Amino acid sequence: MFESEVVKIIECPRDAMQGIKTFIPTEEKVKYLQSLLNCGFHTLDFGSFVSPRAIPQMADTADVLQGLDLSESKTKLLAIVANVRGARDASQFDAINYLGYPFSISENFQMRNTHKTIAQSIEILDAILELGHKTKQGSGYLYFHGFWKSLWRPLERGNCWGMD
Predict the structure, then answer these.
(1) pLDDT in tens, 41-92
(2) Average pLDDT, stretch 33-43?
């Protein structure tokens, strides 16, 4: 089987958790993520190194990571970063295999998500990738967060390729 024929399942509890307003205790996050590590997913998008003001639920990502027992799991860990500072913080942890950056083809969505333009985001992404090449997290992922919203919302207006 060729590498391109392999399906890699990435589970993303981070996305669901960050939307919950009531803070989930660190121990509960560790327990839940530990159960997911035992499922055999290729990658677990487990947390993010972003401003706690922006996403309070992820303020304890480093503590959560330190609470995980990775000794019996082959699952790789992915953390979201929205800037170089977050990438530096995440790259301090050898257990993190991938850094993810939320990128959108929609200027509006990019501004709402990272407070940066697409052009600024490309510069930030270059710096994150350079940092990643110096660390174990050399393989990065781009999250095209705004991509589907940009296609589907205009589709409802009758223009399937328009941008918001």
Answers:
(1) 999 999 999 999 999 999 999 999 999 999 999 999 999 999 999 999 999 9
(2) 94
Q: What is the mean pLDDT of residues 155-162?
A: 36
Domains of the chain: 3-156 (3.20.20.70)
CA-CA distance, 137 to 129, in Å (whole number)? 9
HSE-CB at 52 with a 13 A cutoff on CA atoms is 5
State the residue for tokens 């639920």. Answer: 57
**Is the entire prediction scored with pTM above 0.85?**
no
Which token pair is 11? Answer: 């589970």
> Using CA atoms, how far apart are residues 17 and 113, in angstroms rounded to an integer?
16
The full DSSP string for the chain is --GGG----EE-HHHHHHT-SSPPPHHHHHHHHHHHHTTT-SEEEEEEES-TTT-GGGTTHHHHHHH---TT---EEEEEESSHHHHHHHHT-TTEEEEEEEE-S-HHHHHHHHSS-HHHHHHHHHHHHHHHHHSTT-SEEEEEHHHHHHHHHHHHTT-TT---
Q: How far is residue 134's CA from residue 91's CA, in Å, rounded to a whole number? A: 9
Residue 80's identity, in one-letter code, is I
